[in-house]
């Protein structure tokens, strides 16, 4: 927009050019760019549909011109203070139109009253058209990006394991860990550990690292086993199970078993 406004001012020699645009179906837009201003009165001004000269052009998607803005009885007085502060007298509002809808306005203004020439209106209109083209391109890119992101999300949802499938993975993880400890063959044990590694993502670099026994205990906690049942499964004393659980909770700063399991999963140490 800045380039379009500057180009129109060089062509027309109008005192001030300003404008802004918004999203589709909006009932207002904000003045975001100005050229030739003396004050900040126009910057950030919110133009409502139907209010003032620009609001009329915005509402009807057609040009609107006021040769003597402050004395024009056909427009509302919502923005007189800003117009007077900038000492504007004649104002032309050219809509930024995309697919038949006004998405904003480019204004051309002078500090004296009087009509605009056809060439001046055409130049400001061309600036509005150039901006409309760029906005339309941005809209198309945004829609395409959103479509790709949506498709990717839906694809991931469709391919994501169900809760039941995840539960089966977690049971298999716990069983494999127990089986791996019972094996005397180092090669077979290493192969099992490699399989276990595939069931969990890599540990995040800033996460605390659990010991093998702490992972064993949490893997069974995740299955809903009590401390006593975990001890029976792992051939550990009840107090030993509690000790491993406390150590894991302390590492993560967890307040309970459930939170500790959730944090272990988020850190990549449990499936």
TrEMBL record:
Locate the transmembrane regions by residue number: none
GO MF term (any one): DNA binding
Family matches, as SMART domains: HTH_LUXR (SM00421)
UniProt keyword annotation of Electron transport present: no
**UniProt keywords, alphabetically:** DNA-binding, Transcription, Transcription regulation
Pfam families tied to this protein: GAF, GerE
InterPro entries noted in UniProt = GAF, GAF-like_dom_sf, Sig_transdc_resp-reg_C-effctor, Tscrpt_reg_LuxR_C, WH-like_DNA-bd_sf
Transcription regulation recorded as keyword: yes
Which GO terms of type biological process are on file? regulation of DNA-templated transcription
The HTH luxR-type domain covers which part of the protein?
203-268
Family matches, as PANTHER family: DNA-BINDING TRANSCRIPTIONAL ACTIVATOR DEVR_DOSR
Q: Specify the protein name.
A: HTH luxR-type domain-containing protein
Which organism does this sequence originate in?
Leucobacter komagatae
